[in-house]
Amino acid sequence: MKITPSARVLRMLGEIEFDEWQCIAELIDNAFDDFTEIHRSGTPWAGGYRVSVELPDSAQGQLVITDTGRGMTYDRLERAVRAGWSGNDMHDKLGLFGMGFNVSTARLGKRTRVLTTRQGDTEWIGVEIDLDRIGDDFEAEDITEPKADPNEHGTRIVISRLHPTRAAWLRKNGSALRNILGQVYSWLLLERPFELWIGGFQVKPVRHCRWGEDRSVLYNNKERIPAYIEIDQKLENGLACGDCGQWQLTDRDACEDCGSNRLTERERRVHGWLGIQRYMHKNDYGIDFLRNGRKILRWDKQLFTWRNPDGAAGNEEPEYPVDLAHQGGRIIGEIHLDHVPVTYQKDAFEYGDRSWRSAVEIVRGVAPLLPRRAADMGYEENDSPLALLFKAFRRNDAGRRYLVPGDGRKPIHDDTRRWGQEFRRGNPDYQTDERWWQAVEDHEAAKSRGKNDKAAAATPGRPDEAAVLEALGFGGTGTAGEPSTPASDGDASKLATEAQSPKDVSVSRSSAPASEQRPETKQERVTRYMESSTTYPALSRSFGHPRVGFVEVETRQLTAGGLTDENLHRTPVLLDQRAGNSLVAFLDLDHPIFQKFGADPADLLLAEVAVLLRVRAETEWSHSELIAAIRAESLPATALDAQLISAEAQELLAEIRHRMVAELDRTGEAEKAYHFLSPDELTATEHAMIANGKVTRTAELGTNGEFLLHVPALFLVRLVESLPSAFMDNRVFQGVYEGVASASARRLSLARTVGYLSDVATQATFAGASLPNQLLRTRLSIRLLADDLAEEK
Which of 326, 340, 350, 742 is most buried, judging by how many CB atoms fall within 10 Å of its CB? Predict the structure, then answer.
């Protein structure tokens, strides 16, 4: 069999670098192309659509790729293995280039055997390409094999004498290979009945963990923006070359690029979707761009950067994520561009091609995503699909406003990322967005309860202990203002008993005598707790340690009543074991251990879980040793880690900066605030702006409040002290200032807010090692300052 390549192709083969997964993908592409033609024809296909990849088991092993396609005739096989030939249309197929087979097989090993058969053929026919034996005549040896079943059909490629480095990679990275190809072919594996098996395991499509089509947010209290936007824009049909793929500007008889006369009119269409991922990630976000069902770009982020068409080269300005960039992003999408040409390696589109540029304009528009930047540059506001999602979801505050799960105070990004991993593992409890949505709702409920508690605590005239005793019938008061009669010891004992017994007295069933009332069963009690509780996301997870095992815990916070154990004693934590290694943990955050002594709910839950695991595992560890090990394993984010707490501080400061900017712009006091900058602070601000790609002349600073996004953190403290009326009284912070007449009350309110802010700004500025007590103080200040933020308008 003659496999003579052209000189042009030989030169190209030496320049193309393919990774191991790309080599295998080239061979899979050809099989999926065949499957696609069969599937489109609507003909029933016996044997199914299956590609199997057998990985080498040793350095001397072989790589085998088998498919259940139609097989090839001898003439078709000869053309398929000849470098430089392509029977594929440049716009309909994955296997775009005739040299793909040769490049991939040659990079993997020195000998390749291709065997193919069609249904009804009596034998397998094929060719052996041995790179050490092929001479100048480029003749390869024909081979045949007997066929056990005449109904067999398909193609088998066997690559041996593998290059040592490639063989080692394939032996060690079967799981990584499945993951990569599960991403690359996810659309085909989901939308068509194709199967891909690698190393004996089926490749699962790597799906996006996005919010559902029915989720949305209200932007500026007037515009409803969905978390999922479909895109389907058909462009005017064009004339394209079937050989080189180039689109033609005008009607022609031959291609203006390669001279081919294979010109046909083709559809040009941009379709797919953009959406919001259910969790933040530093790397796994961005837009996937597909061609004929295969992902060419994965997690691509180039559309998040604006390039000024009138500026010099290198003027790109990143626009997302900018707010809290250390958290990563969550805008994702899948855009199909079947009409846009790609590179030979299929890892990029031809970005200079006008079809790519027009697709970018459809998805992200021509103007900057940032409205202020667009206005400054003279553009109309960007209303593209990407711009809509950007303005609605650019911030990451917990709650319904941005669709971010929280714990009543702050976002729970670590938890939502962990849930995303469960989604990808196929855990049925995490496939829909219900768990994320429930955490959003629970955050809003907890936040509302916190506000009510703060309002109640601030309300004057609350009843004192004597009034409570009187209301319960113990002691009494004579006239108004007189002390109540002290309760007797017997009364006190009775009161203590009543306090420990369930306010399930609460659920008295009737006015019948107590002797006639049926005691509440354990199951009834647990059912009542389930109905009057909400999920507590921060402590809903797997708890344990490799030495003692793990349990899956759903933690729930009581919203009414109190918890009692099996002896009807009030308890702050109650475990209810379920099937297998799962259990539900109830928390009574109104228990005195939390309200009076400030205990951490995690500590008490860990103590309960440790008892359970210690009994199961019969470990020699002491109880305290086990609790310490479980905390380190299951709650690493609670560690007093300077870097972690600094990141929390920076995250909160970013939120405060944006609120202060908005307030200065609203009141027109930006210029006044700018004059509080010292020369050193001004220099630091300019350096920070340049480092962040924001180039602004000093003379323009102070025209608006945007400079606050780049000032040193400690300047914020001094600015609030110097200009409190601009930020207190529910403008940025809840603390009263002008709302009280007393100067001393003003100083007290301001000192509290500034004290928290100073701790947070100091940690964000100096992230070095600190003593545990200092870090604990900073973490508490972060929580208290977050609670002190005004409700977002």
Answer: 340
